[in-house]
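Predict structure. Chain length: 761.
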Amino acid sequence: MRLSTTTLARSSARRPWLTLALWAAALIAAAAVIVLVLPGTLTAQYSFLGNPDSQRGRDLLEQRMNVPQKANEVVIVRSSQSAATDPAFRSAVLAIQGDINALGPAVVDGAVSAFRGGDTTLISADGRTAIIPVVMAGDLTQADKNIDAVHEVVHAADGKGGFDTLVTGAASINSDFSHTAETDLRKGEGIGVPIALVILLIVFGAVVAAGLPILLSLIAITLAVGLTALVGQTFDVSVFAINMVSMMGLATGIDYSLFIISRFREERARGRDKLEAITVTGGTASRAVLFSGLTVVLALLGLLIVPTNIFASLAIGAILVVGMSVVAALTLLPAVLSLLGDRVNSLKLPYLGRRILDNRAAGRTSWIASVAYRAMKRPALALVVGVGILLLLAYPALDMKTGVSGVNSFPNGFESKQGFAVLETQFSAGGVNPVQVVVDGDATSPAVQAAMTRLTDGLAGDPAFGPVQTQTAKSGDLALLTVPVNGDAVGSLALDKVRELRGTLIPQAFDGSGASIYVTGQTAGNLDYIDIVNSYFPWVVALVLSLSFLLLLVAFRSVVIPLKAILMNLLSVGAAYGLVTLVSIKGWGADLLGFQQVPVVEQWVPLLLFAVLFGLSMDYQVFLLSRIKEAWDRTGDNTAAVTEGVGATAGIITGAALIMVAVFAGFAAGDLVMFQQMGFGLAVAVLLDATLIRTILVPAAMKLLGRWNWYLPSWLEWLPHLSIEGAPEAPSAAPAPRPGPEPGAPGGPGLEPLPADERAA
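Prediction complete.
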C-alpha cells in the first residue's frame, strides 16, 4: 500500500484505538522527559556556533589563563537616615558581605566592600549608598543556577534597620529575564487559548468540534517540548525556544485541525459515510496540511544557517512543534474523528450551530467571498489600492533600527533594572560587564609592553572608560586588559566604544607589536552577534525565497503562482516591519497597547518575523490555491475557480487567522519588549495577510492574470504532477485549457486540451 495522506487517514480511522494508544505512549514519554530532563536544560545566555573575535578571545582566556567567563553581581545597600560613617551602616554592609561569603566557593568566589577588602570608591558621593561587588563561582551557566542563593541573602536583609537592599548584575538580569519569559508564556497562553476557543465556537458552532483543535495543539506542544529537552542535552538551547514552541504550536496546531475538521464536516454534509469522508479529507485537506507544514518548515530552515544558539533554538523549537502538529493532524485527528463520527457536532450552540451546518450543507459562502468577488469585478483598482495600503504601512520600516535590548528595556518594577539605575547614577555600571582586551603575544616584550601602555594612556583620556586593570599569564604569552565602559553593556554608548577600540584605538596602539588582539566580554559579544545577524540576513532571505518558490512551483506546476505568492508575502512582511517600527520605536499607540517605547527593535525579531511570516503566509497560500487549483482542473474557468476557491476557504482561513492573531496578541501582552515586538508583528501581519491579501489582492491579481496564473514553460514539463488537494469528485468531461491569455486576448498562443494524465493530476 502506497504511503500517502489518504492511506494514513484511512488506516488511522480503521484502527482508532491502536492509534490513540501509540499517541498516549508518546505523550507519557514526553511528559517524563519534560519532568526529568528539561529543568536546568535551557539557558538565557547566547552563544556562537562559529568563531568570532569575542569567542576567540574568550577561548584564549580559558585555555592559557584559566579565566572562565564570570558573572559579576553588585549588591546595593542604601539608607535615607544613616551615612557610611555611622557604625550601623558599617555593620549592615559587613553583615551582608559576610552572609554572601558564607555561601561558600560553590556559589561565590567572594564579595568585597569598602569596609573589608575594597576601597572608598564603593561608597557613593553622598555617603548614603554602598555597593558590594560579588564574583559568582564557575561560569555563567553555573552562576545562573546559584544566583537565587545570593538573592535570598540580600532580600532577607532588605528593610532591616532602615536599610534598603538591591542586587543587579549578569546573573540577576538573566534570572529576571528567564522568570519573566515564563510568566509571559503563561500569560500568552492564558489570553490566546480562551479567545481561540471562542473563535472556534463561532466557526464550528459546536463545543466538541471547537475543543478538538486546542486539545491536539496541546498534545503537539507537549511532544515538541519533550524533544526540545532532548536536543538540549547536546546543544545550548535558549529559553526562547519554549515560548516559540508554545506560540507556534497553538497557532499551527489549531489551524491544521481546523482545516481538517471543517473539510470532514463538509464531506459529511455532502452525504458521504464516515470512513469515506475521512478518506476524502485525508486526500484533500490533510494533503494540504502536509504541504502547508512543509512550507513553514522550509521557511524556518533559513534560521539554522545563522551561527548563534538563539536562532538555532527558535528554528528547532518551531520546526519540531510544526512537525508534531502535522503528524497529529494526519494520524491522531482521523482516529478521533472515526470514534466521534457526527458526534463531533455535539453540544451545538443554539441557533449558531444549526445555521452553520445548514449553510455548509447548502453550499452557501460567507460575506468574505462576496468581497473577493467584488474585487474581481474591478481587479486593477483593487490591486492598486491594496498594494498602496501595504506600502504605506511598510514605509516606517525605513527608520527601523535594530540592536540588543538590555536591562533598561525591562519594566521599571524589576529589581535588576532598579539596581542598575543606581549604579548608572552613583557609580560606574560598566564594572558589571567590563570589556576585556586579550593580547595574544609575548606580553613581556618591550614592544607589547609599550603598546599596552599606549592603549591604557589613550583610554585614560576618555571619560566613557574606567580604570584599566592588567593581568598576565604565568607563561607570559597572554595578557588581559579589563576596561569598564560606563552605561548599559548593550547600550549604544558601550557598543560604539567597542567599535572604536577595535577600529582605531587598538590598531594604533599595537601597530608593529607583533601581537594579535581580541576584544571580548558581553559588549563585544553583543556587537559580534549584531554583525553576524546583519551579514546572514540576506542569505536567509535568499534561501527562504528559493525554497518557497521551488515548493510552490512543483506543487502547482506554475511559475506565476510562486512569483505572485512571494511578492504578496513580501508586502505583508514589509507592513509588519513598518507597524512594529511605528509602535515600538516611534511610540504610536504604545501606551494604548501597553507596549514599551524603545530605541531599537530586538536584533533577532526582524529575521524571525520574516521566516515565520513567510512560512505562515505560504500556509494560507497553499490552502487557498489548492482549492482554486482543484476547481481549475475541474472546470478550466479561471474566474469561476477563483470564486469557488475563495468561497470555500474564506471563512475558514479568516477564522484560522483570527485564532493566530489571538495567540500572537496574547504573547505580545507580556512584559519583555522583544516578545511584544514579535507577537505584535506576527499578529498584524497575519491579520493583513488573511484579509487584505487573501480576500482582495490575490483574487484581483488572479483575475487580471487569467490563465497565465497556471503558465508553465514547456521546458519544465518534466516536473512531477502533484495534486495538493485532489478533487473528491470526478472531473467534468470538459478539458482544462492550457495556461495562456483569456479567450479573445490579443496575441495569445493557441489553446490546446491538456493530456489525460495532466487533467487527472
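Summary: The chain has four domains: 1-36+205-364, 70-174, 367-401+537-713, 419-524.
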